[in-house]
């Protein structure tokens, strides 16, 4: 029953994320925001709401197991995006190329993507530094404040673009599919419905993953890092697949990298403010893998002035490193992934 409830929570979170993401794109259209702002800010924040909600609900519920599940949701998101989501994007480009739908060359605005990646490096390293000061509340809270300020400056820069969203790139609003341009009231109703379902799904998920971790004897943090993002990051993955099919590579990559910036700044800030944020070896490993995967992508963009889908495929191998590290290498070195009794 616990696993059925866990699956139900994941499906509810995914449904909520789909409703919210779909609505937030139309919300940006009504506000006449740029495509970059909608993709890297509104859509990124919208698709990050499941992880944010899971983390907040877990922290509010309290207790060691729930807190670990919340931190796992926070750290698992950037690792999933920088590895598995990039892998799926690269694979999609190659598959659509083989189907003669597009060419295997990635045509993207590397200035936009590069800015996202540089910001990601900065904020995620600060999140790691924050763990070193977990016993000094003032320093930890100061770092959390810096992360929030950096994200605000990032949003301000992204919003500076003047071009508006291309309506043809938007999918029909789920609550009003037969209308070319849905009314703002219907868009807001779908936004609220998505958020409400997200809260319900997050509550079910946190309860289930805590029970499942205890049953398996595995740390809730580790289980949450591996399981949570598989469902909660599906919107970014599906958005990127759709955009690569239509040769909109800037949107495909920007949706992922924009979400990475949000999830590596605002979510760790929440973690620092409301949890001890004393990251163990398993948590630090997730951060290191995410930075390593992103460094490979950023390195090719910087040195070769382009990006190959094959570089994105490397993310799949790096994602597989995490369970190998925590379930095989770390136990050999004396780091347990079991729940302490």
Give a structural overview.
The structure is a single chain. By secondary structure, the chain is mainly alpha-helical. It has one domain: A middle domain of Talin 1. Helix content is 78%, strand content 0%. The protein has helices at residues 2-30, 35-61, 64-98, 110-132, 137-159, 184-216, 220-232, 234-245, 249-263, 266-274, 281-304, 309-332. The model has no long low-confidence stretch (mean pLDDT 81).
List keywords for this structure.
mainly alpha, 0% strand, 12 helices, globular
Task: Please outline what is shown here.
The protein is mainly alpha-helical and 341 residues long. The chain has twelve helices and no strands.
The low-confidence parts are none
Helix-strand category:
mainly alpha
CATH architecture: Up-down Bundle
**Name of the CATH homologous superfamily:** NCX, central ion-binding region
Q: Please indicate the count of domains.
A: 1
* Beta strand %: under 5%
Can you give the helix content as a percent range? over 70%
What is the C-alpha radius of gyration, as a whole number of Å?
Answer: 19 Å
The count of DSSP E runs of length 2 or more, i.e. the number of strands, is 0
User: Largest sheet, described in full?
Assistant: none
Number of helices: 12
CATH class term: Mainly Alpha
Oligomeric form: single chain
Overall form? globular
The run of helices and strands is HHHHHHHHHHHH
The CATH topology assignment is: A middle domain of Talin 1
State the end-to-end CA separation: 24 Å
The whole-number mean of residue pLDDT values reads 81
């Amino acid at each position: 029953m616990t696993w059925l409830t866990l699956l139900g929570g994941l499906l509810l979170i995914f449904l909520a994320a789909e409703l919210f993401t779909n609505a937030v794109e139309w919300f940006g259209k009504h506000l006449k925001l740029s495509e970059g702002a909608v993709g890297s800010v509104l859509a990124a924040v919208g698709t990050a709401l499941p992880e944010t909600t899971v983390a907040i609900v877990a922290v509010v519920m309290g207790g060691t197991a729930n807190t670990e599940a919340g931190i796992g949701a926070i750290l698992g998101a950037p690792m999933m995006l920088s590895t598995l989501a990039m892998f799926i994007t690269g694979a999609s480009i190659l598959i659509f190329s083989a189907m003669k739908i597009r060419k295997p060359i990635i045509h993207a605005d590397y200035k936009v993507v590069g800015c996202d990646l540089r910001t990601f490096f900065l904020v995620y390293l600060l999140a790691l530094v924050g763990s070193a000061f977990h016993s000094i509340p003032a320093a930890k809270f100061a770092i959390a404040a810096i992360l929030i300020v950096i994200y605000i400056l990032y949003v301000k820069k992204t919003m500076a673009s003047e071009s508006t969203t291309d309506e043809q790139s938007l999918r029909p609003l789920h609550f009003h599919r037969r209308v070319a341009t849905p009314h703002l009231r219907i868009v807001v109703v779908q936004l609220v419905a998505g958020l409400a379902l997200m809260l319900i799904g997050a509550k079910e998920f946190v309860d289930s993953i805590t029970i499942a971790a205890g049953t398996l004897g595995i740390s809730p943090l580790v289980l949450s890092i591996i399981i949570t993002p598989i469902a909660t990051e599906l919107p970014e993955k599906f958005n990127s697949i759709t955009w690569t099919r239509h040769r909109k590579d800037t949107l495909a990559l920007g949706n992922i990298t924009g979400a990475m910036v949000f999830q590596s700044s605002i979510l760790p800030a929440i973690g620092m403010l409301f949890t001890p944020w004393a990251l163990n070896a398993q948590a630090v490993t997730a951060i290191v893998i995410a930075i390593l995967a992103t460094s490979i992508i950023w390195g090719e963009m910087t040195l070769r002035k382009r990006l190959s889908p094959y570089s994105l495929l490397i993310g799949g191998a790096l994602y597989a490193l995490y369970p190998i590290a925590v379930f095989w290498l770390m136990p050999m070195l004396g780091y347990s992934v079991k729940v302490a009794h």
